[in-house]
Design brief:
- Helix content is 17%, strand content 34%.
- It is globular, with a radius of gyration of 15 Å.
- The chain has 149 residues and is of the alpha+beta class.
- The longest helix has 11 residues, at 48-58.
- A hairpin with an 8-residue loop joins strand 1 and strand 2.
- The protein has a single domain (4-13, 20-143), classed as PK beta-barrel domain-like (M1 Pyruvate Kinase, Domain 3).
- The two termini are 17 Å apart.
- Strands 2-1-6-5-9-8-7-11 form an 8-stranded mixed sheet. A 3-stranded antiparallel sheet has the order 4-3-10, with no helix packed on it.
Length: 149
């Protein structure tokens, strides 16, 4: 299976809902153009498979946008990319850290049936990674991800 970007999300401001985008510009040392975290030089990624596993384990049906991550991937394990360089299309990135689930995400996704602590527990070690944007270029759903090993 080829590793690809499945979805792209951004929010213009803190506390605003994520919006799906057909394509986006990743800018070196800035991040995802138009996103609330642009200027930090960092974006966040989560595996579609992790969201599907979370939904199966909890009985919920959250949309990947609810995780607050910018890019939803399919076909690549993200955790091993921490400390490594990889590419999305022609854009070079470097995995910097795991996106550990936080109490805010727990509260946001909690329901009467699933507590905030259970949300955090079910997303521990699978909530994605943060990556520093090292070069500039356009990406879209379907863009191939390559691990430079």
């Amino acid at each position: 299976m080829t590793a690809t970007i499945e979805q792209i999300f951004s929010a213009a401001g803190h506390g605003e809902p994520q919006s799906a985008r057909a394509e986006a510009q990743l800018v070196a040392d800035v991040g995802l153009d138009g996103d609330r975290y642009a200027g930090t030089g960092v974006i966040s990624l989560i595996q579609a498979e992790a969201v599907e596993a979370f939904n199966a384990a909890t009985g919920l049906s959250i949309n990947p946008a609810a995780t607050g991550r910018n890019l939803v991937t399919r076909g690549i394990a993200l955790n091993p990319l921490v400390g490594k360089r990889f590419k999305i299309g022609e854009v070079e990135l470097e995995g910097t850290e795991l996106c550990d689930p936080c109490a805010t995400l727990g509260k946001l996704l909690a329901t009467e049936q699933i507590s905030a602590a259970a949300v955090v527990r079910n997303f521990t070690d699978t909530a994605g990674v943060r990556a520093r944007v090292l070069s500039t270029g356009s990406i879209a759903a379907g863009t191939v991800i390559t691990d430079n090993g």
